[in-house]
């Protein structure tokens, strides 16, 4: 897929001279700093099994203001090295590899291979805030940030189209987080991006149980419906600014399977519903679950209530 700027149109993404925008914060002679945003799936349907082993998806993703931050500095040699920032808490480091299993280093290596391995190496410093295995796309956003930062710090002539092609080879959510869109319908494995021209703001309170979810396990447990639900209505609702109707349209086919796999998450959903008397939804394959709010003030109040009453960490997410 191709890149677009953050003002995304309603058509599928087309080739553009606009810079991919997953959140370039700053650049100096020696470093590039890129924000790596979390996403929420406010709609996710599984439409079938693909020959490549992945599932055909119809999902609506929104980009939140909740971010990791990636700092990239070029090296004189060709080594790629990744470490956490000193401010990254121990709990968020757990389960995040720092070797070439990490999507940051995979993305950098793929970009370098695309250019014949002529690019130098880089040091990556990841300030982690998005929990792993949470369904918020933290690792995918990190990969998108790495592609953007490496293209910049290595001064490569990679086009947006080429950058998106590399992203599609790495994972399902990377293209959306690379695109700069606030909201989009994503199909295929998630790499086909159809931006939604959204003008309204969205507010959520999100909570994650201690146990994360295994995406392959959740998909294995999920029953593919004979008649899939379409994202058309929720996409039109977002485009029209009818945000008050979203609770009736948000949906995630993976929720039942995820609850079977993670009883702690299932219990958390029940507790949230009992406390708030509101519908609770799951992002991606979980384990993060969320509630939509009408305003930032309402979200902050609900965040405080959830943290005090349920003794869990809650996040106030905005789109």
Structure commentary:
With 319 residues, the chain is of the alpha+beta class. It has two domains: 24-195, Ribosomal Protein S5, domain 2 (2-Layer Sandwich); 203-318, GHMP kinase, C-terminal domain (Alpha-Beta Plaits, 2-Layer Sandwich). 31% of the residues lie in helices and 26% in strands. It has helices at residues 90-93, 103-114, 138-153, 160-168, 174-179, 215-221, 232-240, 255-261, 263-276, 296-310, and strands at residues 24-27, 32-49, 55-74, 80-84, 122-127, 183-188, 192-195, 203-207, 251-252, 281-282, 289-293, 314-318. The strands form two sheets. Strands 1, 2, 3, 4, 5, 6, 7 and 9 form an eight-stranded mixed β-sheet that branches. Strands 10-11-8-12 form a four-stranded antiparallel β-sheet, with helices on one face. Helix 8 crosses helix 9. The longest helix is centred in the middle third of the chain and has 16 residues, at 138-153. The protein is globular, with a radius of gyration of 19 Å. The two termini are 23 Å apart.
Task: Give the SSE map.
Elements: E1 24-27, E2 32-49, E3 55-74, E4 80-84, H1 90-93, H2 103-114, E5 122-127, H3 138-153, H4 160-168, H5 174-179, E6 183-188, E7 192-195, E8 203-207, H6 215-221, H7 232-240, E9 251-252, H8 255-261, H9 263-276, E10 281-282, E11 289-293, H10 296-310, E12 314-318
Parallel strand pairs: 2-9, 4-5
Antiparallel strand pairs: 1-2, 2-3, 3-5, 3-6, 6-7, 8-11, 8-12, 10-11
Helix pairs in contact: 2-3, 6-8, 8-9, 9-10
